[in-house]
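Incident log, entry 3
Record: Response regulator transcription factor FixJ (205 residues)
Problem: checksum mismatch between cached and fresh output.
Input:
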Amino acid sequence: MPDKGNVYVIDDDPAMRDSLDFLLGSAGFNVTLFDSAQKFLETMPSLAFGCVVSDVRMPGMDGIDLLRQLKKEPKTLPIVIMTGHGDIPLAVEAIKLGAIDFLEKPFEDERLVIVISAALSHAANQSKTEAISTDIASRIASLSPRERQVMDGLVAGLSNKLIARDYNISPRTIEVYRANVMTKMQASSISELVRLAMRGGILKD
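Fresh output:
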């Protein structure tokens, strides 16, 4: 079965850990078990990206304390909180602190698998989106001040002649700057340049 991603289970109950290890391993996840939140945090710097599944009530550092600590970390991991009966107020607090979902014990095995799969998929897409936005921002930063002015004019719908008039330079010179803009922005058309400008935050939709 293909590896569907990493899951880090944190629970002080050995039986629960073993049960989740079997369930999630059978579903194709690469599972690592921790008997305390503190041990997870100590190991976290060396861990690959994955979804954290943590009990909310544990001795020492509980699930809420773990969430507060993770908010301070540069590495962002999706977190699913498991709660017992009567822990719903804590679960709501967990959501406010960044948990993506909470599951009340006993929960259906399939629901946990679906929640983890969705969390990993969403995080992967978000990471890809952030990488694309960063790349576009670097392209924009590579433009000279004049090229940036020409790009602003192009995405505003101005013709070469109008942009040339605004900056008191010849339309032929604008054509050169325009070609440079298209090359540096890796845009094959004005419509693509507009989409890149919107993605880069310099043009609002």
